[in-house]
Structures are given as C-alpha cells and as structure tokens.
Design goal:
single chain, about 70 residues, alpha+beta, 3 helices, about 20% strand, globular
Length: about 70
C-alpha cells in the first residue's frame, strides 16, 4: 500500500508525514469534525507522544484509538 506524504508546519518548522490513505481519512475526518487545522491536530498528537516513538507511529496509534472508541460507542 502506497503512503501519502503531506507537508505541514509543526511547532514553527516545516516537516512531512507519510501515512497510508486510510489513516489520513481518520485524521482528516476528526480535524473537520472539530473544526481544527491538520497542523494543530498533528501538533497535539506530537505533544502527547513518547519522544522515542516516531510521529507517524503516534498518528497511526491515535487514529486506531479514535476508530476503536467510535466502534465501542455502538
């Protein structure tokens, strides 16, 4: 599966993040629902991750948790 790479500003510097399209769908949907920019959502995830974990992994885990919490509600 091909990764989709996006560039954004994170804490004042440009960076890029590559994720599978399915993970981007979860991230984008949450940002839209919360009326939040992609950069601010990724910054929140970045601020709360273990510094030993890659950002891409932290975003994937965050997205998985969002989907799982949504599934539990039903």
């Amino acid at each position: 599966m091909a990764l989709v790479k996006r560039s954004l500003s994170l804490h004042g510097h440009r960076t890029s993040l590559a994720l599978e399209p399915e993970f981007w769908e979860v991230v984008d949907a949450h940002a839209e629902q919360e009326k939040q920019s992609l950069a601010s959502l990724i910054a929140e995830i970045d601020d709360n991750r273990d510094t030993d974990d890659p950002l891409s992994s932290a975003v994937r885990v965050w997205a998985l948790r969002k989907v799982r919490s949504f599934a539990v509600e039903f």
